[in-house]
User: Fold these one by one.
Assistant:
Number 1:
Amino acid sequence: MSDWSKKKYMGAFVEKCSFLHTDSTCFCPAETSSEARKTQKGLLLSFPSSKQAQGLSQFQRFSLKLSRQAVAFIFFAFGNLADAMKLIYNSVFLDHNTGMHPENRKRLDAFGPLEETEVLDGTPWLNLVHTEKYIEHVRATCQAGADLDRDTVTSAGSFEAALRAVGATIMASETNDFALVRPPGHHAYPSHASGFCLFNNIAIASQKLANEGKRVFLFDFDGHLGDGTSHIFEESDQVFYCSIHQYPAFPGHGRANETGTGKGKGFTMNVPLPPNSGDDIFMDAVATCMQVMEQYNPDVVAVSAGFDAYQYDLLLELRVTENSFFKTGQMLRERSNRIFATLEGGYNVEALPACVRCFLAGINGQENPHPAKDTTSFRMEWESYELRINSTMANLKDWWKFK
Ligand SMILES: [Zn+2]
C-alpha cells in the first residue's frame, strides 16, 4: 500500500477527529503532531508516540493499541452525545393546570416518562422583554387562578411553570437544546398575554443573546404567527424574525408586506400559507426562509418549534406530516451548528411526541423515526401560495436575494 493510499484509507477515520488515530503504521500528518493527542473537547492525552511505541514489546504495543481504541471510542461517543440536541424537561410544566383547554398537560404527558432536568427560574430575565407591571399582573392573576384573557387561562401553579419555561429556554439557548415547556410563549407581548402564552420564552432568550452581541435568526414554524415575538423585534436588525404560518388564522395578521419597521425594516419575513397546504408547500416555504437565513449569517438560530401545522391538528387546517418537521431539522442542521428550540403549539396530543422527535432526529443527523406519506397540495392552494410567496420575496428584495 502506498503512503497516499494509506493516508486515504485512514482519512475517513482521522478526519472526524485527529485524536482518533489508533494505528501506529498510519502516515497521516496528525500522527507526529501534538494535535494528534487533542480530543474534540480539547483534552490532552499522553499516549506514547508511534516512535516511542516501537520500543515496546509486542504485548505492550497490543495493549496500547486497545487502550487508544477504547478511549477514542468513549470520547467520540460522548462527544457526539454532548453535541446532540436533547430535550430539557421538568414536571413543573405540568403544574400549569388549564383543565380541558386545548393547551393542557396531556401534551407533555403524551411523551411518557421523561428524564427531568433541574431548570432555572427565569425571573432575572423577564424584564428583557416584559414590563414590571405586566409581570406583577401575571403573578397576581395566577395566584387567583383567573384568566389573563379569553384564551389564556391560569392556575395557582402557572406562574412558577411560566418562570421555569423561561429558564429552560435560556438554558437551551446556552446548550443548543430543545426546551420542552409549557406554557408556550410566542403570542405574548411585553405588556399583555395572548393565545395561551404568559411570558415570551423565545423572545427573552433571543433578547439575552442580542444583548451579548449575537445576531439571532428567530425561525418560527409554528402554524400560527408568533405575533408577540414579531412585535417585540419589529424594530430590530439584530434579531431577524421569520415565520411560516397559516393565513387567515389567529392572530389575524402576518402578511407578506409586514417586513419590520425603522432599523428593523427588512428583518421580518412572513410566509403566510393558505389553509390545506401540504408538505410540498410547507417545505417550499422552509427552503425560501433558509435562503434568507444563509444571507443573514446569524451567530445563533432560535427556533419557535410549534407543531400545529400537523395534518390532524385540532386548531389549524394545514396538512403537514412528520416528514416536514424532520426535513426542517435537517435543513437547519446543514446551515448552522448553533441552534436551540423551544416548544410552542401542537395540539394533537397523540402526534405531538412523534413530531418533536422527528424534528430532533433531523437536527441530530439521525434517520426519520416516523416516516409518513408526504401530503401534496391541490392546484388552488399552490396558486394562492405562489401569489403570497412572490409577494414576500418582492417585499424583501431590497435586502435579500432569492433564487
Ligand atoms: Zn400555534
Number 2:
Amino acid sequence: MEKTPGIRSTVSRRNFLSGTAAVGGGLLAMDMAGNPAHAAVPKPSQASAPLSEKQIAALPRVKQEMVAPPFLPKHEQVATGGPKVVEVRLDIEEKKMVLDDEGAEIWALTFNGSVPGPMIVVHQDDYVELTLVNPETSAMEHNIDFHASTGALGGGGLTHVSPGEEAVLRFRATKAGVFVYHCAPGGAMIPYHVCHGMNGAIMVLPRDGLKAADGTPIRYDRAYYIGEQDYYLAKDEHDEYIKYETAGEDYADSLRVMATLTPSHVVFNGAVGALLGEGTLKASVGESVLMVHSQANRDTRPHLIGGHGDYVWSTGSFTDPPQTGLETWFIAGGAAGCAIYTFRQPGIYAYVNHNLIEAVLKGASAHFEVDGKWNDDLMKQVRKPSQIKS
Ligand SMILES: [Cu+2]
C-alpha cells in the first residue's frame, strides 16, 4: 500500500490556501474600520500571551476520559482556574462495520473505534496534548488535522504514524468554537480516510461559558454529539455492495464511487439507525439540549422536526453571537456547528439532515424521545382524523 501519496502537492495546496486567508484578513480589517459593530465581535482570547515551555510545564494537567458519541466527556461549562494541559489519547482502529439493515459493510477507519471519533472538550487557552496511537495491527498510516489548532496542516505533518507508532502533539486552543478534526494522510488518501469515518470534533468553550448576543449566559442540561458521515460503497455487477477481506482493499473501488460525489449512505453516528431505537437521544420537557453536529466532508442542514434552534452557532464559532429561533441551520462541509433547544413538549422528535432524500433514503435521521407534560396551548388535536362531514 502506498504510504503518503501526494503529500507534497497537499502541502503546496495548503500554502496557497494560507495565502488566500491573508487576503481575507485584510478585507476583515477594512470591514472593521467601517463598521464598529463588527469590530467589537471577534475578541482575541484574554489570556493568550505566549507561555514558555517552563510555564507550560507548571500548568495543571488533566486527563480527559474519552467517551463514544453521541455523548460528551465530563466537562465544566464555565472553567474553574486558569489554563490547563488537557491530555487526550486517541487509538486508531481499523474495523469492519455494518452500515444498514441490508448488511452493507465497510472497513471503517476510526479514532477510538467509533464513527465519528470521540468529542474532545476543553476551554479556550487550554493546551490539548494529544497522543495518537496507531497499533501494529493496522494496515495503514494515519495522522490528524485539528481545525481548532493554529500551525501548519493543523498538526497533520507532525502526527504521521505508521502501524506500531505513536506521536504526541500539543496545541493551544486559542479559538473558541466547535471544530472538526480528521485524518489527512495525503493525496487521495485524505478523502478516502475521511469518508471511511476518520473524523470527529472538538469543542473549545469560552472560559466563562456560552453567551447570547446581549451577554446573557447560556447553559445546557444535556449535550449530544451527532457526527454526520457520507460513505461511498461500491457495488458489483449484481447491484450488491462489494464486501472486502481487509482494510484498504476497497481503495480503487472507493475512489471511483467518491469521484461521482454521490454517497451510497449519509448517516449519523456511523450507521443507518444508530440514533434511532435503542440509540434514541433522551431529554425532558424544560431541559436545554446542546446538539453539536459535524460533517467533515460535505455540506448539511440539520433540522429538529417539531422544535427549533433557540440558539444556533451555525459556523461553530463562539466568538460570534448565536443566531436565534432558527428552523434549519447550515453546517458547511469541513465544519462543526451547534444548536441549543429547550424542549417544550414531550414526544418523539426527528432530528434530520433536511435534504429529506438524505434523511430518509440515505440514513441521516435521529430521534429525540422527550418526556414531560403536553402543553395544549402550544398544540392540540382539535378533531381526530375522521370521515369528512360536509
Ligand atoms: Cu487515517
